Amino acid sequence: MDVFADLIYGFSVALSPVNLLYLAIGVLVGMVVGVMPGLGASAGIAILLPLTFSMDPTSAIVMLAAIYYGAMFGGTITSVLINTPGESSTIASTFDGYPLAQQGRAGPALVLCAVGSFVAGTIGLILLTVLAPAFARLAQSFGPSETFLVVMIGLLTLVVIAGGKWRYGVISALFGFTLATVGVDLGSGDQRYTFGSPELITGINFIPVAIGLFGIGELLYTLHQGEHTEERGFFRVSGRGPELWPKREDWSESGGPMARGSLLGFVVGVIPGAGATVASLMSYSLEKTVSQTPERFGKGALPGLVGPESSNNAASTGSMVPLLTLGIPGSASTAVLLGAFLLWGLQPGPLLMTQNPEFAWGLIGSMYLGNVMLVVLNVFAIPLFANIARIPARIMVPIVIVLCVVGTFSVNGSIIETWIMLGCGVIGFFMKLYGYSPAATVIALVLGPLAEETLRQSLIISGGLSIFYTRSMSLLLLIIIGLLIAAPLALSIYRRRSTRDDR
Predict the structure, then answer these.
(1) Of 166, 155, 172, 168, which Cα lies nearest the Cα of 491?
(2) What is the pTM assigned to this prediction?
(3) Res 234: pLDDT
(4) What is the tens place of the pLDDT at every residue in 135-172?
(5) What is the separation, in whole angstroms, between the first and last Cα of the chain?
(6) What SS3 state is found at 221?
(7) CA pair distance 459, 468, nearest whole angstrom
(8) Of 103, 51, 31, which Cα lies nearest the Cα of 380?
């Protein structure tokens, strides 16, 4: 009953005219960001974050969160129409989405994706509403040792899902931790790696790093791929008529994938570090496995499109659970959101929902309303957003670069942070080019101070490492970490043996 009352209170906050306005803006911007290849939710949130500093914290986070899940909807349009995922989480949507467009079924495919995303988002929100308070109560029993180990689990999950490139994930995370050490030592109060610059005493702000890695880095990679010179085939979508709407058999064929994708995506999203990309790929594999006609996959099978689309939207909702209740981001986008929380003096964690109910429940209530806005936009404005995807990269790239520079400089008026942003843009390009993980770097940068603080506290409390194996919850988390470390090593050994056997 308390959860229901809290949700009603959240709706009352979200329904205020100001919050509704910013919610609508966030939804629209998220859709635009999603349909512009080379950007994505992480870059969109990072670039626009400086514009929210004069806003009320609740309104600002409502808008930024709407950009996050709005981009999940928008990324599908380019995946289906031009075979280019607007978001990494919509990669699986190209497998069957583009073949459907080639068959003249782009309209029904996009409508079913919109409905599937709405269903998945709603199911995810119901689970978030029910589970978030329970997670928060559990997290209240966490001490410094448990918090430190949860941070490590989140980062190690990113490493594991990198597969054969897990070493690159480790290096990316260590780079983020290195950046997090700049500033003042928590124990001695001495300056570390500031090189005599007073602007670095407070540490490296995550905003220029995030804008550089996700904004400038992605755009440089787009230019490197030559996409600014390419003319892509584009399938037009009518805004009316029978060609837009799915048939009765399409709906019946898509019901199961929607349900399975929603549940799978939420579970994967709750795991720190897994994210929507992993959820969508797992959903595609699941649908192909359970299908009675797996040979249709890759040639225009609706379950191969609807399942992953439902899954990635449910995962974006699921990733809000560890963010709100543990203060642990589940993805790169929620890492940027976590940084925004901290900028406004809000500490996500076990006490957020009790100490700041207006903020926490207002955000959850706004996500319900945002879901409704998005499904209406997706169904009735598909042709409009499809035209945005046709903006040439040679026009889009310079505009976004200017926004990145102006946005970074406007935060603190610091030319050093602007140079950091540009430098991280170059680094982000090479990370993308050679398979490193910008997401691991940003998450490690945001969580680095928390990891250092909780590790120091744990060692001081116990006078050594005993606290990590004498407390039952810490021991359980330590076992999970051991399994995460062993998994990529075992996989690497297995692959080497398989290669030798083939020879």
Answers:
(1) 166
(2) 0.70
(3) 47
(4) 777 766 777 888 788 778 777 766 665 555 677 878 88
(5) 64
(6) helix
(7) 9
(8) 31
- Residue 274 pLDDT: 60
Question: Could you give the CA distance from residue 206 to residue 302 in angstroms, rounded to a whole number?
Answer: 40
Q: Which helix (H) or strand (E) holds 347?
A: none
Classify 414 in phi/psi space as left (phi over 0), alpha (psi -120 to 50) or beta: beta
Query: Token pair of 9, please?
Result: 């209170």
Residue 192: strand pairing partners:
183
Is residue 94 within 8 Å of residue 79, measured between CB atoms? yes
| Closest to 323 in 3D by CA, of 424, 450, 213 | 450
**For residues 356-375, average pLDDT:** 85
Whole-number average pLDDT of the chain: 78
Token pair belonging to 172: 């990316």
- Average pLDDT (404-423) is 81
Phi-psi region of 87 (alpha: psi -120 to 50; beta: other; left: phi over 0): beta
CA-to-CA dists, residue 284 to 35, 93, 107, 186, 290, angstroms: 21, 9, 21, 46, 10
Q: Which of 136, 153, 152 lies closest to 349 in space, CA to CA?
A: 136
**3-state SS string over 255-320?**
HHHHHHHHHHHHHHHHCCCCHHHHHHHHHHHHHHHHCCCHHHCCCCCCHHHHHHHHHHHHHHHHCH
User: What are 392's two structure tokens?
Assistant: 């040439």
pLDDT digits (tens, 9 = 90+) for 186-234: 777 788 888 877 778 878 877 788 778 877 887 788 777 765 555 544 4
- Residue 291, classified by CB atoms within 10 Å of its CB into exposed (0-12), middle (13-18) or buried (19+), is middle
- The dihedral of CA 251, 253, 256, 259: what is its sign? negative
Nearest to 14 by CA among 358, 385, 410, 425: 358
pLDDT greater than 50 at residue 43: yes
Helix or strand or coil: residue 216? helix
Q: How far is CA 433 from CA 123, 125, 158, 224, 441, in A?
A: 37, 36, 18, 9, 15
Q: What is the pLDDT of residues 377-404, one digit of tens each?
A: 777 776 666 565 556 667 777 877 887 7
For residue 1, the surrounding DSSP H or E stretch is none
Residue with tokens 């329970």: 134
CB 306 within 8 A of CB 314: no
